[in-house]
């Protein structure tokens, strides 16, 4: 299968990764969890990107505070496509960083609990498994508590 732009970018940056397809491959998500990329719209910053564990809920108040917005929210899908170039379900922190390094990027602090994570590679059903240290060194996000507290 030909490499897409995210994989090519990682190759150019000499960053190790493993291609992963949800439909045909299985991994231990306890050891290598899946993180989803959320495109938010802040009232001050505009596009704001959050990377959070797949089965977690973003705390909008925390995200607003950390991103220096009064409020943030999930915008309409046409805004997401126009802003990132990726359709819903294929947003990737790597591809967004490649095309829009100016967008504020925030990773939930739980990412530090793992050595590797799965993130979208910018296409539906295509992801990459990448070391946390490499992902953070490449994108240089703010890492903070972004999740709803479980009570």
UniProtKB/TrEMBL annotation:
One Pfam family recorded for the sequence: tRNA_edit
Highest taxon above the source species: Bacteria
Alphabetized InterPro entries for the sequence: Prolyl-tRNA_editing_YbaK/EbsC, YbaK/aa-tRNA-synt-asso_dom_sf, YbaK/aa-tRNA-synth-assoc-dom
UniProt enzyme class: lyase
EC assignment: 4.2.-.-
Keywords: Lyase, Protein biosynthesis
UniProt domain YbaK/aminoacyl-tRNA synthetase-associated: residue ranges: 25-137
Recorded family membership: Belongs to the prolyl-tRNA editing family. YbaK/EbsC subfamily.
Protein name per the record: Cys-tRNA(Pro)/Cys-tRNA(Cys) deacylase
């Amino acid at each position: 299968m030909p490499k897409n732009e995210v994989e090519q970018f990682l190759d150019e940056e000499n960053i190790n990764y493993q291609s992963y397809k949800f439909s045909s491959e299985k991994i231990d998500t306890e050891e290598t969890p899946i993180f989803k990329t959320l495109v938010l719209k802040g009232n001050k910053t505009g596009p704001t990107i959050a990377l959070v564990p797949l089965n977690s809920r973003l705390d909008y108040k925390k995200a607003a505070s950390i991103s220096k917005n009064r409020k943030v929210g999930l915008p309409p899908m046409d805004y997401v496509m126009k802003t990132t170039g990726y359709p819903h379900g294929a947003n990737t922190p790597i591809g967004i960083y490649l095309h829009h390094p100016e967008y504020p990027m925030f990773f939930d602090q739980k990412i530090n609990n793992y050595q590797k994570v799965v993130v979208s590679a910018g296409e539906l059903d295509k992801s990459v498994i990448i070391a946390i240290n490499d992902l953070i060194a490449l994108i240089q996000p703010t890492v903070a508590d972004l999740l709803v507290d479980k009570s």
